[in-house]
Amino acid sequence: MTFQKNKGLQGPMRKIVFVSLYELFAIIAASLLFIAIGQSAGHSGAMAVAASVLAIIWNLTFNHLFEKWEARQSVKGRSVLRRVIHALGFEGGLALMLIPLMAWWFGISLWEAMVTQLWLLMFFLAYTYVFNWGFDSVFGLPASARSVAA
Q: N or C: which end of the chain has fewer CB within 10 A?
């Protein structure tokens, strides 16, 4: 896979590489976090994979919509505020899907699942922000965030 730093990785390949790397690290981290809060390794790994499948679908949907919105903005680039909004939108939407799934899978109440999700959310908010920044640093900004001159 080759790309010019000034153009970066673009199009469908960018999305495939992004989602694959993001979810690989997320499955590992989520499995370890579930184990740390007392769930069995088997249940933790299976829940992490199920969450990853949901997250992939949500990631593709959310990022498509976010980039369509971003392309219409007069100010280009990805400021700290824009990255925070992106992370909050992505993680908030995912949490709404994962809380009932975790309650069912682990046999816990919705309240316990929400508390668990809050701990995961704190971790994944930071992870999402850092991963996106790192990904953009390595592969360049997507076309939707570039200025016209770039």
A: N
What residues make up the domain containing 116? 11-144
Judge residue 26's burial from the number of C-beta atoms within 10 Å of its C-beta, 0-12 exposed, 13-18 middle, 19 or more buried.
buried
CA–CA dist 10, 13 (Å, integer): 6
Is residue 70 within 8 A of residue 145, CB to CB? The reply is yes
35-62 pLDDT, tens digit each: 988 889 999 999 999 999 998 899 889 9
What is the model's pTM? 0.66
102 within a domain of the structure (yes/no): yes
Residue 41 included in any domain:
yes
Counting the structural domains of the chain, the total is: 1
